[in-house]
Amino acid sequence: IFSALDKDVDAEDHGKGQRSPKLCGTNYPVSIAFIVVNEFCERFSYYGMKAVLTLYFIHYLHWDKNLSTAVYHAFSSLCYFTPLLGAVIADSWLGKFRTVIYLSIVYVIGHVVKSVGAIPDVGDSTVHVVLSMLGLVLIAFGTGGIKPCVAAFGGDQFDEEHVKERRKFFSIFYMSINAGSVLSTIITPILRGDVKCFGGDCYALAFGVPAALMVIALVVFIAGSGLYKKSPPEGNVLVRVCKCIGFAIRNRWNNSKKSPKRSHWLDWAEEKYPKRLIQEIKMVFRVLVLYIPLPMFWALFDQQGSRWTLQATRMNMDFVMGVCFCVVKMLNALLILVFIPIFDMGVYPLIGLCRIKLTPLKKMAAGMILAALAFCAATVVEINVIKSVVEPPPAKESLVQVYNLMDSEVTVQFPGHTVFSDPLKSYEDPSGYTSLPLTGESQLYTVTVTHNGAEYQCGLTFTERTAYSLFLHTAQPGDTVCKLVKDHITKSETGAAIFDFCSVPRGEYNGVVCKTNSDQYLIDLGLLDFGAFYTVILSKVGDRVQFLMEDIQANNIHIAWQVPQYVFITAGEVMFSITGLEFSYSQAPASMKSVLQAGWLMTVAFGNVIVLIVAEGAGMEQWTEFLLFAGLLVAVSIIFSIMAYFYTYVDPDQLDKIFREDTDDEKVESSDGKKNEAVSLTDMPKQTKM
Q: Could you tell me where this protein is found in the cell (predicted)?
């Protein structure tokens, strides 16, 4: 690593990096092959780790669903805040090449620490949490720091005149991201679930393989060192920008009444700072203002790894037409690989034939609408999914269902309530839970049970927010006819069936051996389905020795119903994300390309912050939350469209030409004693609005 850095330090510092040869007679540099492969391996590493992260929090660290969702999005948010740090280091100090190498080393260390934290034999639960959080922080700084550098570094490999090839590169670059995501989403869940280590799911291996891929990514990137075109860092760009802005504000405040008005408030910095720097800051500001509404798109998009995953665990994951949980989880990345060529070679040209000019900002606005439609589809799915879910009772309420195991009908009376007014038939499956009001956190009820004219009194204590099953059976001398059992009504997060409080895989269970103190039975349970909760009662009545109850209904909505929402969100991603990536590069001046890439990535970070605020603060039902996000994104897309209408595209590559001509004019005009006018954005070559 360090020999490669020593070899290229002079070339990078002086902008004399070897110019890469072209691929097979095209205008694509050979060097981009190393960058694309590096990105594939790095994305495999990142998404492979994230594919099992939510389940790791729930099943290994034993966090609840809301905490797991919050930490997941906090980590995702940090991964997209740190690009600003990487961009400043690259553009101001180390250059993009060395920044990628140094932060990739931090990235690898984070993966190793995370993998060690997933080994059960290493310390106690506190050690596991500490190592896991430390590893995630290092990964966030590593992946976030290199994000803006790799994309911008790839764009730097192209000559100025090869704009079309550079635009295609960003599509290829994005395809490599999703190719890595597809494979990692398949492989890491298999490593976690199918490979057993330390007596359970092998999270250590599931995190260790992504660490190995990150090492490969680093090696591949270094291997292309001699082919890269390296631009030297421009000095401390961020500091110069901040000083220029500060001086403009102070100068305007102090001299606004003495001096004539200027066309732009940044023009007040002309007395101290170069006109070129001022124009570059104006360009960046105009783009950053457009970024303000964009986090809402990412607030929806990143819920694929949290809310949509948890929705899938409450659905039927049986194999139907080749569709299963693992396929749906990687569907977004898989569809990206299909949709990119379809949109580039089919959709966009067809729209062009209709004489509709589809500019980058129009594509992004359309992508927002498609993402909103995805969440409308998710809302419809959620409404149907929750029909098989038993909602936990609120404060001062319990849930109760009654099993009549006697030989004839019985009546049950709760004093002061008519919750079970009709007689209960023998061995009839209860219709469901009934709400039982309480006077406080708990309450003692004296329940009257009437069977064949005889009355029995049962003293039963119910606790709020709890579900119970009340079993009525034939009394033995000195025994009661009532047995109250606390129930588990929360569906398994893995989608497994629950049988007498034990999680079991879905399947047919026949010939199950059941032993009592005096007898042994072979019982046929039949199909134990996804997400259901079963109670088996052994009661010998005639030839029958069992009674299987389905307390919680099985997941009856197939996971294939999530496919439409993934189609919409992926189509939106193609139009929004790929376009935004290339737009951020094309509208940025050369000295600030990484900084503007970081600004683009920070919209993802703020999107995750929005999810944290809504998920933790709103306290609403999941389907209403989905609908809220969809409505917000539609509103934001309208605002963005209005802002985009007034945006005028510029060509930053023309800055050199403009200021070179401006310098020549100054020389001529200085001989005549004339003052040269400031160059403004109106002097820049433009394209159409929106």
A: Membrane
pLDDT in tens, 23-47: 777 788 888 999 999 999 999 999 8
Residue 161 phi/psi, 5-degree rounding, is -80, -10
- Read off the pLDDT of residues 366-383 as tens digits, 9 standing for 90 and up: 999 999 999 999 999 999
| Whole-Å CA distances, 177 to 44, 173, 274, 336 | 8, 7, 39, 10
d(CA 436, CA 444): 12
**The overall pTM is greater than 0.85:** no
What would the two tokens of residue 348 be? 């966009």
**How far, in Å, CA of 272 to CA of 586, rounded?**
28
3-state secondary structure of 453: coil
Contact criterion met (CB below 8 Å) for 406 and 428? no
The runs of H, that is alpha helices, within 320-462 are: 325-329, 331-342, 348-353, 360-385
- Could you tell me if 588 and 652 are in contact, meaning their C-beta atoms sit under 8 angstroms apart? yes
Q: Give CA separation, 460 vs 232, 418, 487, 510, in Å.
A: 78, 16, 15, 36
The pLDDT confidence band at residue 309, using thresholds 50, 70 and 90, is confident
Q: CA-to-CA distance for 682 and 418, rounded, in angstroms?
A: 79
pLDDT grade for 13, boundaries at 50, 70 and 90: very low
Look up tokens 């007679």; give the residue. 25
Contacts 24+ apart (CB under 8 A), 261-270: 263/680, 264/680, 267/678, 267/680, 269/244, 269/245, 270/678
Strands lying side by side in the sheet with 497-499: 502-504, 497-499, 533-537, 547-552
**Strand, helix or coil at 436?**
strand
Instruction: Report the candidate in 388, 562, 622, 621 with the shortest Cα–Cα distance to residue 490.
Output: 388
CA atoms in the 13 A half-sphere facing the CB of 56: 31
Q: Using an 8 Å Cβ cutoff, are 413 and 391 in contact?
A: no
Give the tens place of pLDDT for each residue, 313-370: 788 877 644 445 556 667 887 888 899 899 988 999 999 888 888 889 999 999 999 9
Structure tokens at 286: 């105009």
Tokens of 455: 């009355």
pLDDT at residue number 223: 92
Confirm if 409 and 425 have CB atoms less than 8 A apart.
yes
CA neighbor of 98 nearest in space, from 5, 203, 214, 198 = 5
Q: Given this model, what pLDDT does residue 322 score?
A: 43
